[in-house]
Amino acid sequence: MALCCLCELMLYIVVLALTVVVGSIVFIYFNSERYPSLLFHSTEKTFYHSPDQEASTKFPSLKDESSVDLTIVVPAYNEEKRLPVMLDEALEYLENRKKTSKFTYEIVIVDDGSKDATSKVGLKYSQKYGTNKVRVMTLNKNRGKGGAVRQGMLVGRGKILLFADADGASKFSDVEKLEEELKKICENGLAVVCGSRAHLEEESIAHRSIIRTFLMHGFHFLVSFLCVRGVRDTQCGFKLLSRQAADVLFSNLHVNRWAFDVDLLYLAQFFRVPIGEVAVKWEEIEGSKMVPVLSWIEMGLDILLIRLRYLIGAWKIRDLKSME
């Protein structure tokens, strides 16, 4: 009798678990946006020329022909304090490079619905250097880092496009290393090169707690097992793309928040876009928006959902022909 009751209980638990799993999958399927929205709010379609915000011009499109050598997209949320340091370093490098060659560039600062003076800070640089070099897009509402990068990429004019964090953790002198790798691996106009901090991993582990180290390795395992193989550092906010690759990948990018890099590289491998990885200088800057441990857990869940949504068809991918 006891054995029979135990079997019934086990069966009940299995049925309940399956019901929860199936119900969750059905819920996820019907509550997922099939294709990412590429729309801009009316206030995001133009950029201002100075902090007084009197004169404005319509942004171009990634679908247009390129008109500068390099676009740099900088997603920024409440970055009025750290942004000037990053921009000063970037512009010093870019202006010096411009003096010795015919090199042209633009920086697109994407204010991701900040509550501080991030846009005003960016607009001061637009006024100083001109909007042909520095442009500010102020999003109508916070979209998340991935959403901010996508909106900036979709208005880029560069032959190649880089996104870089507003904290200045990566150094712009490494851009040329990424460019060299991009030229080596580019096939049919498609290539992505990731700046990598993997060479710094042993040193960083020495300063981390056991829990943070465990979560970091767990996250890397999930990324490699479920989504992206062969890339040691998927999360470094310093990635360079060919114009065609940027068009294909950001037109399909679904993830708006921290794990967007994984979605981007998953799509790159889906489309067989060559992926390179180059070691870059990097230093941790105070003021990070990521919360230790909690952010790793959130990103881990995002990785599971990325793979699941593509697997069950909740997320669709626009094919190359439909994008031509």
How large is the count of helical segments? Answer: 11
Q: Total strand count, please?
A: 9
Shape label: elongated
Helix content: 40-55%
Radius of gyration: 22 Å
- Main structural class: alpha/beta
Unreliable spans are none
Portion in strands: 15-25%
Report strand order across the widest sheet.
5-4-3-6-8-7-9
Instruction: Report the biggest beta sheet as strand number plus sense, adding barrel if it closes.
Output: 7 strands, mixed
What's the SSE pattern? HEEEHEHEHEHEHHEHHEHH
Which whole number gives the mean pLDDT?
Answer: 88
Distance between the termini: 68 Å
Question: How are the SSEs placed, and which strands pair?
Answer:
Blueprint: H1 2-30, E1 46-48, E2 56-58, E3 68-76, H2 83-99, E4 105-111, H3 118-129, E5 134-138, H4 145-153, E6 158-164, H5 175-185, E7 192-196, H6 201-206, H7 210-227, E8 238-242, H8 243-250, H9 260-270, E9 275-279, H10 294-311, H11 320-323
Parallel strand pairs: 3-4, 3-6, 4-5, 7-9
Antiparallel strand pairs: 1-2, 6-8, 7-8
Describe this entry's structure for a reader.
44% of the residues lie in helices and 15% in strands. Helix 7 (210-227) packs parallel to helix 10. It contains eleven helices and nine strands. The model has no long low-confidence stretch (mean pLDDT 88). The strands form two sheets. The chain has a seven-stranded mixed sheet, sandwiched between helices. Strands 1-2 form a two-stranded antiparallel ribbon. With 324 residues, it is α/β, with parallel strands linked by helices. The relative contact order is 0.14.
